[in-house]
Amino acid sequence: MTDAGPGATAVPRAPGNGTGGAPVPSSPVVPSDVPHHRTAGDGWVECACGRRHWGRFGAAGLLLARRDASGVPVAVVLQHRAPWSDQGGTWGLPGGALAPDEDAVTGALREAAEEAGIDPSDVRPTGTSVLRHPDWSYTTVLADEIHPAEPTATDAESVEVRWVPVDEVADLPLLAAFGDAWPDLRRRLGAGPDTADALPGGAPTA
Ligand SMILES: [Zn+2]
């Protein structure tokens, strides 16, 4: 509730983060003074739904949950998107375009490592949720924290990456698609891997 509102895109930089206090660009140009990863899947898809989406081979993101001792999810990792990015200033999942022939789990973990400094060995994927469009798809990879993970913004795509209490997620200005998906994703986190597309190795469902 102390976070900047949706109109506040000029987030002050923390001192001493190595960027020298450069102004936050207001134009949709990737800053050149911060790391930015590229894959062969980077690019827009003109979708038959009438919109365009990022990721020539689809996209994926990581929904990483921290649970309390009784297994109840208490926080998830969210990314505060850089002002220059699509729907800049909103909060969503660390993730991005899949590389050619890259499966969604691999891609989501790769992007989470690149953007949020999340070590894949600290994470256990538990399931996926796929949003299908005519010419594109987005896979949310649900995962549990198995070793303490301290995410941080590690490239140009994030203003901030942090644990957000589950009960506070809906109060943030969310990326539209993530906001639409959040009620179902939250239910799935709470219910555990109870659906048909739970990953092999998850808890038995029958
Ligand atoms: Zn579409």
Chart the SSEs and their pairings.
Blueprint: E1 44-46, E2 52-54, E3 59-67, E4 73-81, E5 91-92, E6 95-97, H1 104-116, E7 123-133, E8 136-145, E9 158-165, H2 176-191
Parallel strand pairs: 3-8
Antiparallel strand pairs: 1-2, 3-4, 3-6, 4-5, 4-9, 7-8
The structure holds zinc ion.
How does this structure look, described?
This protein has 206 residues and is an alpha+beta fold. It has a single domain, classed as Nucleoside Triphosphate Pyrophosphohydrolase. Helices cover 14% and strands 28% of the residues. The protein is built from 2 helices and 9 strands. The strands form 2 sheets. Strands 3, 4, 5, 6, 7, 8 and 9 form a 7-stranded mixed β-sheet that branches. Strands 1-2 form a two-stranded antiparallel sheet. The longest helix is centred in the last third of the chain and has 16 residues. The chain binds zinc ion (ZN). The site of zinc ion has 6 residues, from loops. One of its GO terms (molecular function) is hydrolase activity. Pfam families: NUDIX. This is Nudix hydrolase domain-containing protein. Keywords: Hydrolase. Its cofactor is Mg(2+).
